[in-house]
DNA sequence: GCTGTTGTTGGACGACTGTACAATATGGGC
DNA sequence: GCCCATATTGTACAGTCGTCCAACAACAGC
C-alpha cells in the first residue's frame, strides 16, 4: 500500500501548450473575449493551475496569439485537404464547409479574436501573414479552375471577392445561425464562382 | 460677486443618453470590448460620473445594446440617403462607402459588438430585426436595377451574397487597413453586382 | 427667492482580473 | 533508490471591474 498516486500529471511543454490553446479556443467560443479568462481557461484545460499560462506563454495575450495562429493553421489545413499545395476549387469549398472547421463554436472564436486584432499590432501582423497564404491558395485554385480563359475580372480580384463573401457569410451565420444554413453558404459559394468561372459544381447537384 | 458657477450641466434624459451612446461607440472603436468600460465611457462622455450609465440605461449591457441599435440605424440611414425608402443601387453603394458610415473607427466598433452578439440573446434579436430591414432594402434596390430581367440567381440570393461580401470586405479592411483601400471595396462591389446585373456603374468610371 | 422634480455626483462595496513568485511534486536518467 | 531538471501549484498582490445608493445640485415653475 505504498503505491503513490500523483497529485497532478506532468506534460511535455508542447503538449501542455496545445492543451491550453485548445482550452482558450473553447473559452472564446462560448464566452467571447470576456470569457477568455485565466481562471476559465485553466478550468477548461482540465483544472490546471493559474500559474501555467504565464509559465508557458508569458502572458495571456500571447496565449491569444497562439490561439489565433492555431485557428488559422487549421483553416489552411482544411483548404488543402490532401496536404498538397495544389487543391481544386470544389475540394477547397467542400473542405471549408465541413463541420470541423466551421462549427458554430469555431466561428464564435474567430469573431472574438477578430475583435482583438485591431488592438494588438502583433496579432495584426500574424493575421496579415496568414491571410496572405490563404489568398494565395485561393488564387491558385481559381487559376486552375479558369483553365487559361480570360475572366471578367482578375484572378486576384475574384479571390478577394470570394474570400470576403465567405467571411461575410460565416459572420452572419455566427450572428444568427437560424438565418443561414450550411447549405445556404455552399449555394452562395457556387453561385458567386460560377458567375465568373462557369459551371464548376460537382455532378451530383 | 454672488454669481453661481454650476458644478455640472444638467441634460435632458434623451440628450444624455445620446452622449453616452456616442461615448460608448468611441470606446468600442479604440479599445474593442475591453475598452468598453464604465470609467472610460464616462470620461469619453465629457467627464460624466460613474453613476450615470446605470441611471440612464440600467446596466452597461443595455448601453451596449443601445450602441448596436444606433450603429445600425446610422447604416440604414446611409442606405437611404434621400430619406426615402426607394434608393437606387448605386446611390446605396456610394452612401455606404462614405467616410461617415465606414470609417475605421466605426468598423472597429461593429467588430467589437459583433463579438458580443452570440453571448447576448437580446442583442441577437436586435441584430436579426435590423438585418431584415437591411436585406429588404438591398433586395428592393436590386429588383429596381434588374428592371424585370430574369437573373442567374434570385434577387434574395444576390442580396445575401452582396451583403455578405460587403461585410467581409469591411471586416478585412478593419483587420488590415493597408490591404484594402476604400477604392478596392468600391471596385469589388461593382464587380460582383455587374456580374449578375450587367453594367450599373455611373458614367464617370 | 423659494420649492419640487429629477439629473447628477462620488464613494463604498464585493467580486474578479492578470501577474509574480516561492514552494512543491513529478518522472526520467543514472 | 536517488538526483535533478523542470513542470506545476497556490497564494499574495495591486489593480480594475460593475453596481448600488444616499446626498447633492441644477433649473423650471411659481
Please write out the topology.
Two copies of one chain form a homodimer.
Chain A: H1 13-35, H2 38-44, H3 51-57, H4 60-78, H5 89-96, H6 104-117, H7 121-146, H8 155-175, H9 182-197
Chain B binds a DNA duplex (30 and 30 nucleotides) through residues 4, 6-13, 16, 37-39, 48-56, 59-60.
Uncertain regions of chain A: pLDDT < 50 for 5+ in a row? none
- Going by CATH, the architecture of one domain in chain A would be Orthogonal Bundle
Structural class per helix/strand content of chain A? mainly alpha
- Shape call of chain A: elongated
Number of helices of chain A: 9
Helix share, percent of chain A? 55-70%
Q: CATH homologous superfamily of one domain in chain A, by name?
A: Tetracycline Repressor, domain 2
H and E order of chain A: HHHHHHHHH
Task: Characterize the main sheet of chain A.
Answer: none
* Alpha-carbon Rg of chain A, integer: 20 Å
User: How much strand of chain A?
Assistant: under 5%
Mean pLDDT of chain A: 93
The name of the CATH topology of one domain in chain A is Tetracycline Repressor, domain 2
Briefly characterize the structure.
By secondary structure, chain A is an all-alpha fold. The first copy, chain A, has helices spanning 13-35, 38-44, 51-57, 60-78, 89-96, 104-117, 121-146, 155-175, 182-197.
